[in-house]
Amino acid sequence: MVPGKRKASVSVLPMQTKKARAAPSNTNQYKDSTDEIKYGIVLRKFYPPEMIDDRARDYISGKIERPIETLQKAIEQTQSQRDALPTAGSVVHWFKCDTRLLDNNALHQASKKAKEGGVPLIGLYLISPQDFEAHLTAPVRVDFILRNLAVLRNDLAKLDIPLVVETVEKRRALPARLLELCNEWDAKHIYCNAEYEVDELRREASLMVKSLEQGIAFNVLHDTCVVEPGKLTSGSGGQFSVYSPWHRRWCAYLNEHANELDPHPIPQANPSSTRKQFPQLFDCRIPDAPESKRLSEEEKVKFHSMWPAGEHEALDRLHKFLLERVVQYHNTRNLPSGNGTSVLSPHLAAGTLAARTVVRAAREAAPHKKLTDDRKQGHSMWIGEVAWRDFYTHVLCHWPYIW
């Protein structure tokens, strides 16, 4: 990334070609998606036609509720009912993009709830082949996810916590299967960390209401972003669309609220009797990748060597980078031959490493132990690149038509 101002594509509504602009104003889709569909960039099997300008304006004006607002409303409206539900036979943590034990907000809260109720904690990961297809997930990333799950399962087993990994063929069947498994395990509390994409936000909001119909409290927590979307506003009270002033506000906020970088401890161990109570759950194997997302044996050898899986590897790479390369990051990050980057992007994307952990460690390693917008200092420059991940998520939540 080149230093300087960076602006999200939000002040201008989605681009249209001459052909699209000539279409009637009440059209429900663009007419120029032939190539996108042909080459698989737009998958009509999963997604509706592109958004028209009128609908984008309705999001901006508030006429259409943003998905993040739908989730927030569901959280507020169901809070008292969820809090009133007693703990039953177990507590479930639903892993998604957070395949780690350390510094995992929802996992920590699930562990606390299980301990308070004197019941076991159960980990769950649901694989959706259709999501892999819809999101154009590369086979190498699918392989990395599955290998991370194997490490996570072993780490949890040391704490007598089972990890159930199951494939759900139809993506729309995933919420029902989640609740079905919770009923099997007599779990009245589910915890998960929010995913901020449009479909996922709407799914979580719907699940929060539907789960209560079955006497289950579905709890969604903020974890992926260092600063929760919506907490940073411009001088006019709205969402920043330019990165530089947003980043300065982000640094100031975290300096003022340093506790938001505090780590969440790993979950407490289950009672040893959990293995007798749920013996079949500890025998769960990690499924193979869907046939369309499999690597060749040669590719597996190559990528397993390049990207060892698991949060231990992620933490090792983080500590090595902070010790050896971060000081010169501002000078070497754009030199492909210089090996000057952290090579942590796959781990941040898979959730084997929390962005909060990264920022906290870099801050403590920095000369002034504070977050700044100094682009001539390696630690600050690298923290700024991690902050960009937060920025785009904030933009996506506020302007959900971004693509």
Walk me through this protein's architecture:
Helix content is 46%, strand content 7%. It is built from 17 helices and 5 strands. The chain has a 5-stranded parallel beta sheet with strand order 3-2-1-4-5, sandwiched between helices. It is globular, with a radius of gyration of 22 Å.
By CATH, the superfamily of the largest domain comes out as HUPs
CATH architecture field of the largest domain:
3-Layer(aba) Sandwich
Query: How many H/I helical runs?
Result: 17
Overall tally of domains: 2
A few lines on this structure:
The chain is of the alpha/beta class and 403 residues long. 46% of the residues lie in helices and 7% in strands.
Task: List descriptors.
403 residues, alpha/beta, Rossmann fold, Serine Threonine Protein Phosphatase 5, Tetratricopeptide repeat, 2 domains, five-stranded parallel beta sheet, 17 helices, 46% helix, disordered N terminus
